[in-house]
């Protein structure tokens, strides 16, 4: 089957609505806006919702950031504040409890490096509490961070590495940042998804990759994701459907033909996609040319949002002074 | 009009043959193979050929390198030897004449950085002739190199910068390495095009960019290019055509419909492409996920091929010892 | 002779005063403070001054920045404003005249990379005036920039490259940023020297390197330098002198011995230094462990100072928005 | 007390011999040469040896590599073979047992990055055994690798992170690569120390850093170290001693003075060193200018040596093909 992959709950819901008109059970959607940022909260509340959406129960909050924000320092700080506000109900830890921030993905591949880039910008404090406790404000929360690499670089499942570290460090919360695939180009590098479900990898070799969630690690896991690519197969698939729909419009009069078009199935479409993307298929990514710069901006927004959220006793100015 | 962009003469010829059955005047094509590498030599010999191909008169040699080569040090050295052999008839300079190697492109964008990566690996010798002439073998050719950046980074046309340098340094030959766009995914990061025509940028803002060729610089210019991307618009365009062709096959019986399909023109296709790639269109690139590694391999092959070609008195071992 | 190298006019004056008590002719020194930054203005006014200082006639302004500044975003902006103020009397160009900013040094060597790092942060505008003149505020000055590399990387004298570019681009002013060597550790990565004399390389292979000044390029050249290293030989030399001075204090009573100590000459000291630094001597640098981070801070201060100075019609906020 | 730091057992022994003429108990030294590489094996056999050397019981093998090797690909491969031969008696694991390679140090600081650079070049195979067991030669050993960062970057002790990972992955051997400080410039970036004692950090804040050895991790730990810096304080200290020794030679006739010089103690020397290195002292490193390139060469030698040693069923050509 063709895998029109999206990691965004928002898009999973859109796909569902495209394919069927039946009511979506077990899924609540709530939309609002803050500071020009469109926020969609998708709650999957039961098994029916899980099945329809292909995602586990939980809360998924999507922030869609206007394009200009990435080129405007002040607007980026506002976006970080909005992110911090969305995180607030999810970060349920006491102020002296430890948080572990994890940057998932391969730092050698630009479009996969957003997680490691965020960790570089996180205010790391846990060691200071131990080494120089008297010089550190008691309101500062102990935060630690790591980018564990990917299976091909380390030979170890990221889940194994994290489980080992979590058992030693015993954080009260894990926040994992990852690069995602979306279905629509206009969401690439402009969207942040926050969820309290952790990360459930899937597809291809990844099938036997461990989950990174509360069940696996033993502590709550907040996942923060940024779509940085659309799979080329998705572009090709959407193109095919668009062409077919256009033709269907014109061919309604010609009954035989109309039904023929309706019979072009997924197998046929998949054959065409393979033809076009040969020899790559699975590993072709579509990215804007300036992906390097925009990923840096998104990493800054997320890191600032997390820093504000994890250190409520500090202002963003305090945090910047600490970090620079 | 939709710009199905290709920088490869080989593909320009393929596109011509797809669109028309009339004989291609003023273009000679010659195909052969060396060490598993398919080589196509396209010679554009007159104005008719220039117009049909959209490229200036001259020789364009394309090497298509089998995929395994990039993962095999020995095969990479063989590919470099094949490249050096193709360069030989084009590099018409005496052994004591200076060659300037130029790495075009933006080093901050992985898929554009192949030129600067090659220059890093070139055996730079010109200064040694001046500083320590007695220690340097008289058979070593003076070679210098620079990666001048791109307009957005420097505020200066690359052509202006190079013209200024060429007038001071007075090389007898310029070799310019650049990243290209191809039309077919299977050529990305596996193809090297060599031409004696220099580089003629075109399209968009680039329209007023200076040419980098013998006319502009006053010395012969060999261009070496590697396609590192396919434009997403090309993927979408090819998908549309594939779908239409498939349907045409099935609809031959239904005359009205067949002619309707034939009437879907470029304007209509362009509208669909914009719809799918919104809001990016022009700046969307399709790249394999491991582009970082394969570009490094291609840069190594090209640099080695150039080093062998420019320093015929040395073995590849000598060159490697010098460089490491 | 031992080369206790300093590129700072401030330190050349200190060295002079250490060695002799005779009045320093042709050199005026003026000290003041702005925003906790100590500023020393050294003016060399005639040939006697040139000879005593080992530097060409002109104005040398040294800013010594307090250590905390590099870890405080706001203090860094203040330092940039102070730098802009010092540059003002030196930047004598009309608002519509072009300025070329040049980053000297080898970007592959951290302690030599401050120039290229500054150029990355400069607001490049010259091309916009040409491409989209209607969208650009007429008060914006055309600025272009380049980091030409070093002789070993390009095979070309930096002076040759720059002369070629200057003849094509015809800027009204060149600003060249370079890494320097100082004599005292406490000035490393904390000091900025501005001069209107350009750059006159000297010592070792550099003897035949071209000057980068008004005489060579045909336009005024402002040099901005940051000492990023102390030569290890300087550390060893200062250590030897310190030990000898200590012992002299104690040995004044013992006349013979005191005169013996006085007779330990430079040749003897040089032998000891070579002994200690074997086998490196000339190429050993002493750097603080966190040189990577502090050089980044210094580059930010200089780039901001230059941006403010070159674009008087804009605020620093405007500039940051443009750059990010 | 002045900390003339050396991490090399070879130098600890030299220092001991400088300070005293009494026999060194519990330490056996054995010197030989292979392929122009001088090899010194220091065995510390009992508590007396531990105390005299300031290092735990075990075997320390030091390879001193001639300077030309780093610029000669073939000589580098020979050095890797010599390293593999030294590792052989220490790597006591069955061919199907897992080895974890750990790159210690801060990848953002060039002179500290040799460990992470080695891990990048290690043949990682463990995941292939699990994902595609049928395609993998049964003689290939499962190897995994990680560079865990440093306390300041992660907020976690490296020892904690590694202990967590080791408990999950259960390797039979850990190999840890780290940058060291030596006492003599001529050993910097030319020396490799191998030991079966693991790593015992010490000095300053490091005092409470966990050991990375068999006792801490529960599996044998081989440490491989490369001295990449000499502390500036060591340079200053050695300079002081050299000056004093020179003067003592001349002052033997003057009895009073000779005894005065003998009385200049460590406290006095420390004061002078602080004076010279002010305000840095502890964090000043002396490095050759080309440290970036030579560290890359050393990382290649160590990675190749480890790859040969860990994969005895493969040739170096096989390994290079796999890695490139």
UniProtKB/TrEMBL annotation, chains A, B, C, D:
InterPro entries referenced in this protein's UniProt entry, alphabetically: Pept_HybD-like_dom_sf, Peptidase_A25
PTM comment text: Autoproteolytically processed. The inactive tetrameric zymogen termed p46 autoprocesses to a smaller form termed p41, which is active only during spore germination.
EC number of this enzyme: 3.4.24.78
GO biological process per UniProt: proteolysis; spore germination
Pfam families for this protein: Peptidase_A25
Propeptide section residues: 1-7
Molecular function, one GO term: metalloendopeptidase activity
Gene3D superfamilies: HybD-like
Class of the enzyme per the UniProt entry, highest EC level: hydrolase
Entry annotated with the keyword Hydrolase: yes
Protease among keywords: yes
Membrane-spanning intervals of the chain: none
Swiss-Prot/TrEMBL catalytic activity: Endopeptidase action with P4 Glu or Asp, P1 preferably Glu > Asp, P1' hydrophobic and P2' Ala
Keywords: Hydrolase, Protease, Zymogen
HAMAP family in UniProt: Germination_prot
Function per UniProt: Initiates the rapid degradation of small, acid-soluble proteins during spore germination.
Assembly notes: Homotetramer.
Annotated family: Belongs to the peptidase A25 family.
Protein's UniProt name: Germination protease
Taxonomic path: Bacteria, Bacillati, Bacillota, Clostridia, Eubacteriales
